[in-house]
Amino acid sequence: MPLVPLASPTDWEGWRSAARALCAEGVPPEAVDWRCGEAQRGLFAGEEEWRSAAPPPVAVRAPRRFLTLSRYVICHRDEERFARLYRLLVRLQGEPALLANAADPDVAWTLKRAKAIRRDRHKMHAFVRFRKLGERDGRERFAAWFEPDHRIVELATPFFVRRFPNMDWAILTPERSAVWQDGALRYGPGASRQDVPDADMVEAEWKAYFAAIFNPARLKVKAMTAEMPKKYWRNLPEAELIPGLIAGAGDRNKAMLETVVTAPSALSKRIVRRR
Amino acid sequence: MAARTTIEKLRILADAAKYDASCASSGTSKRSAIGTSGIGSTEGMGICHAYAPDGRCISLLKVLLTNFCTFDCRYCVNRVSSNVERARFTPEELVRLTLDFYKRNYIEGLFLSSGIIRSPDYTMEQIVEVARSLREDHGFLGYIHLKSIPEASPELIAAAGRHADRLSINIELPRTEGLRHYAPEKSAATIRKAMGDVRSGIDENRHARKSRLLRRAKPPRFAPGGQSTQMIVGADGSDDGQILRASTRLYGSYRLRRVYYSAYSPIPDASADLPPVRPPLVREHRLYQADWMLRFYGFGVDEIMDGGAQGMLDLAIDPKLAWALVHREWFPVDINRAPRETLLRVPGLGPIAIGKLLAARRHARLRLDDLARLTTSVKKLLPFIEAADWSPGSLTDSPGLAARLAPPAEQLSLF
Known about the structure:
A: alpha/beta, B: alpha/beta
């Protein structure tokens, strides 16, 4: 059984070149053993790593959309991802329009995971909170701590480059970090929450805004948690206000309904009369 | 009185802005600060950076420049006769706040509105100055939504359109009579004219950008995110049919991107003129669903109102289901043969699922378990569809169907 080693859990390039060669050689999906990371290598004595026998005998083809989908799905934590994507690639050789059939179980499996990745990336774009470290050479410097569900740091970082090219910033996560400094991007190993300052001057204003924009007459906690699940709260400075806002909403609403209508002030009467 | 700090002003002026439902940051041109000395980007798709416990998305810093106002619109928390606390930002303060929030990734940009102080033109100038400073002094490329003041001069609206991604003018009440009674300083004709001006600004700009002569620079964009408006629901006596007809006219005549509905909700220091009965929040929700049916499902207002009674939508079930229950002659729909327009009539099927379904059925005749991979809930569809291995038989016409499909009553007590 070909044992295919991959450099990392998100080694899309490695997976792609191996998958292309295996597919060209006609190796069936169930016969491939995908392994990634140092730990999983050489577990069993006598096993040999597969090496591609170049050049591949036939061209392997896949629609452009498959490239995008596979890039996304590789970032998913599902252990089956390499094998599943390879199986889909093999099937695409005989059924080139397969991806259009979302009712197919293999396609549905892949689309579901790609969707989870897109959502995870979207939430990272939304919920990263930078804290200011200071300034250096006229550039403001920021850092953020974030915990994504999947291995999406590389997938999510270009957004921050497009948005904040003229600040220096670091986004730290448990498994991976991205650092943008003086116009250059570099990825590094994971970090810890303590590597990021635990406060920022502007947070007081942000919290004041969060509390003021909430309308206590329209409490809809489920609608909030559907889009901002609790797992994100510990890294959102404003989230610590939520329990208090919910608890106080009933009384505030009641007070608005019960308050006797006040008379317009003398000034307002003058303004109205002036017209 | 000691001068208020920025944070105190923020509390007052965000509180005063929260009755505007819109917080959208989508649908504008794609931009990035790469290669500029500025900051910001827009990605086409909006981003909600937080959610408040009222379930609303927080995408923009939504504030008023000031809540001092010389108008006396009865439904408005900022009307001149209300005794709420007042405050006013300087343009510089607001620019600083927007940039500070943006740099920390709290927001997509700014949604700025204002009470009318001194004169409509003076107020509009102040609003435009904030946007101008963000764009020109700070190279800000994030999203800007400006509320236009209908009585302001067309030149100021044009300036606003050059800096803003979206302009909005609130129509407030669906009927002219309602506006006359509840907002004596506002005129429906002026609002319509201002909306018309924005529409022609957008149209002319689009035309000029398309038909420019070779090698001439493209003219700058004008409100690439379009214009939107808001109607207050339940403050005057308009019924749902009247509201939806007003929306249809607005979408048609001014090509609005969105009409927002805002259930009149209790405000501090409410006017004695307002009706004592508050509309249930679910009414607002049903109007949004009906609005979706108008824009994406090919329904007309009269058809939608077929599912209601006395000009009001059914609060217990969604309007598409309500329509289907009184038009059972349309069903069952064969999911393997029906055209797109017919599939859009099936309660529980939306445009995305239908797109997938149409592509998938070219490969094979669809069975229920295929359908399960294309939609979220097959169970709700069962009475209305036929599949390769399913026919609803008498279920479609059974008298108990409405009760079976109505959600349990507890979900309705939102208010």
